[in-house]
Amino acid sequence: MAISESTVWEVRTTGNQANGGGFANLDPGTSVDYSQQDSAQLALTDCKHPAGSATLTSVTGGFTAAMVGNVLQVVSGTKFNTGWYQITAYVSGNQITVDRSLGSSANTTGNGVVNVGGAFLLGGDLDYEWSAALVAGNTVYIQAGTYSVENTMDLATTPELTSPINFYGYKVARGDNPTGTDRPLIAMGDWYFDAGGITNFSHLRFTGSSIYIIECAGTFFNVLATNTSSTATRIALSLNGSGSIVSCEITAPMCIGVKFNSMGNVINCYIHDCYTALEIDYAYCNVEGCVIETAQLALDISATNEITISHNTIVGCLTGIYATTGAGNKVFNNIFANNYEGVKWTNAPYMSFFDYNCWSNNLTDIVGSTATKGDNDVTADALLGSDVVTGTDGATDADGTVFTAASNPFGSVTTSDYVNIVEAGDGATLGVYNIASVDGAGQITLGRSAGASKTGIGYRIVVGTDFTLQASSPCFNAGLRLDTYTGL
């Protein structure tokens, strides 16, 4: 046997790594959920078990019939296999049965430390062991707060489409679907979460700097993910199986926002301030209704086939879409605004449909003689709500961090914005840079060096996050959905 697939886990900042943390209603009308409380319902230090048995006994006792279905944790004890077990039967106040053997050899000394119930605390030495205890079909609720993970997390099971593992964030009560900073924040640090098969995440925030923050198949909904690594190949969200990213916000200033290694969807997302926003290495992916801004490369589809890119707003990037020899791709009803290059084809792209796009203030709309605009394309100012500061007069000081421009373009810029260096000038380093301070209309300070004493730097700065279209925008006639303006 094993922990029930119907088990629901509770994670709280006020919980404890030594708690049971889970409950399944195995005896309706009698079972009571003790996981939705900070402390264990019962804490024992004198537990025993026979050899190879699922029977747990305690002289002190305190077990009740209401505890059936609750998860207990064996923290320590001679001849005990430590970990999480589910109470499957109540025998007496001094004896219960759990879901599987507690150890191949008997504990006769009565020194087993066991806690029944209580919420789990994510952020400690047992992070890996707890993640490995989850089984397909389980649900995890995470209460608002900040959790600093201290170990790699890896599901020992492989959730399937019919029995995924679901992670939900909540603010006050389960199901209240928080947004913004009301969502729980899981700080992965240098660790990562290999979530395996069909694993779904909703109403959560993640930060990290490892090879990826999360890798799985499944769905991300209302999730913020930020990878702060300076290694270009690292990833915020990695999809290694069919999956979807819906209504999420993703940033990765020096690496990759989202990478698809299987078919999937990116819908109604805000992907910004990335080195590469989306890298798609598998056919039949769909990118729809997204805003992608301030990236060296917004969408890298390279030689991938049958990609659909529609109703997106791509702003302030070095290159909007990069493609080589992929066949059957569809690019329509998108706005390409204030990019250095709108799209770049290095070989015949064999597009099956490429039309109804709006080209707005790009330095070059299309790079590559094999691609041409569609008959119904519009070339005009899209009139977005957010301003885009552009220029080629950027210069750096001897440290490479003080960034100046003689045209004094930084009057509306804030430290929430990012500088995208799209032209190297006499040798600046291309990339996306955070703004540490705005020192005046002609000077800002970057968060890292862009190259010492460089001049003639080309830059893009998207100011703010308003991507709605003004009423007189010509892009309404480019096929964009009128009820949503920018495709969101």
Structural features:
6-stranded antiparallel beta barrel; 1 helix; 25-stranded mixed sheet; Elongation Factor Tu (Ef-tu), domain 3; elongated; mainly beta; single chain; 488 residues; disordered C terminus; 1% helix; Pectate Lyase C-like; 3 domains
Short description:
This protein is mainly β. The protein folds into 3 domains: 8-116, Elongation Factor Tu (Ef-tu), domain 3 (Beta Barrel), CATH 2.40.30; 127-379, Single-stranded right-handed beta-helix, Pectin lyase-like (Pectate Lyase C-like), CATH 2.160.20.10; 387-463, Beta Barrel (Elongation Factor Tu (Ef-tu), domain 3), CATH 2.40.30.180.
Under CATH at level 1, the class of the largest domain stands as Mainly Beta
Distance between the termini: 47 Å
| Uncertain parts | 479-488
Helix content estimate: under 10%
Tell me the number of helical segments per DSSP (H or I, 4 or more residues long): 1
The gyration radius over C-alpha positions equals 27 Å
Number of strands: 37
Overall outline:
elongated
CATH architecture term of the largest domain: 3 Solenoid
How many discrete structural domains? 3
Biggest beta sheet summary = 25 strands, mixed
CATH topology of the largest domain: Pectate Lyase C-like
Q: What structural class should be given to the helix and strand makeup?
A: mainly beta
The CATH fourth-level homologous superfamily of the largest domain = Single-stranded right-handed beta-helix, Pectin lyase-like
Report the β-strand fraction as a percent range: over 45%
The averaged pLDDT comes out at: 93
